[in-house]
Amino acid sequence: AQKITQTQPGMFVQEKEAVTLDCTYDTSDQSYGLFWYKQPSSGEMIFLIYQGSYDEQNATEGRYSLNFQKARKSANLVISASQLGDSAMYFCAMRENTGNQFYFGTGTSLTVIP
Amino acid sequence: KAGVTQTPRYLIKTRGQQVTLSCSPISGHRSVSWYQQTPGQGLQFLFEYFSETQRNKGNFPGRFSGRQFSNSRSEMNVSTLELGDSALYLCASSSRGQGRNGYTFGSGTRLTVV
Fold it and tell me: How far apart are CA B35 and CA A10, in angstroms?
């Protein structure tokens, strides 16, 4: 079974509007971390936000927030006030406490329309 | 502080050749992990090193190998290159290998096998 599932291959959003990128995960570990990365065409993976499995509050980092629903095993990324520079691939990833690797989803290509 | 440096940025090799990629982590980071990114398979974990020891290895053939030096710099080697090895190879460094701290990716090495 896939550890990370991103069901939206591509998304469009109007500039200045908010957008939600979906991510569900699968793990039997009690302790794990969830990450979102942005990958522009240059290739570098840019860290956006982190949510620990024991964190009770949803993580926020500037315009990024993570809607963490543990029972549903979902960790959706919300980008508020979209900017043209937000156009990129976005990857959801998980790292289990018992392992030493990231599991990545297939990514969502976000295009911000002026 | 300087980020994760991967060299070279671009590489073109012929089938059957071997290649060595280099990753210099952020100063003080002792964990380096490698990922292969292809359009078909997405991001896949290759291996992780911590203090010169390989801690985990992904599901790749023995043609893929790596090592880490005492200064934490890491190299990965691919022998007998195949067309399917064409990919973006990313490395990430971490201070501890756990939690949100220090998972910083480099810009990658784009390998093309012809």
Answer: 23
Q: How many CB atoms lie within 10 A of CB B51?
A: 10
Nearest Cβ partner for B107 among A44, A102, A104: A44
Q: To probe the interface with A, which of B23, B26, B57, B103 has the most A CB atoms within 10 Å? A: B103
Rounded distance, CA B7 to CA B36, Å? 15
B40 inside 8 A of chain A by CB = no
Are B88 and A43 in contact by the 8 Å Cβ rule? The answer is yes
CA-to-CA dists, residue A24 to A61, B12, B89, angstroms = 20, 37, 25
pLDDT for A33-63, tens place per residue? 999 999 999 888 999 999 999 988 999 999 9
3-state secondary structure of A97: coil
DSSP assignment of A66-96, as one string?
EEEETTTTEEEEEE-S--GGG-EEEEEEEEE
Write out chain B residues lying below 8 Å of A52, CB-based.
Answer: 99-100
pLDDT tens digits for range A54-98: 988 999 999 999 999 999 999 999 999 999 999 999 999 998 877
For residue A90, count other CB atoms closer than 10 A to its CB. 24
- Tell whether A38 lies on the interface with B, counting CB pairs under 8 A: no
Tell whether A50 lies on the interface with B, counting CB pairs under 8 A.
yes
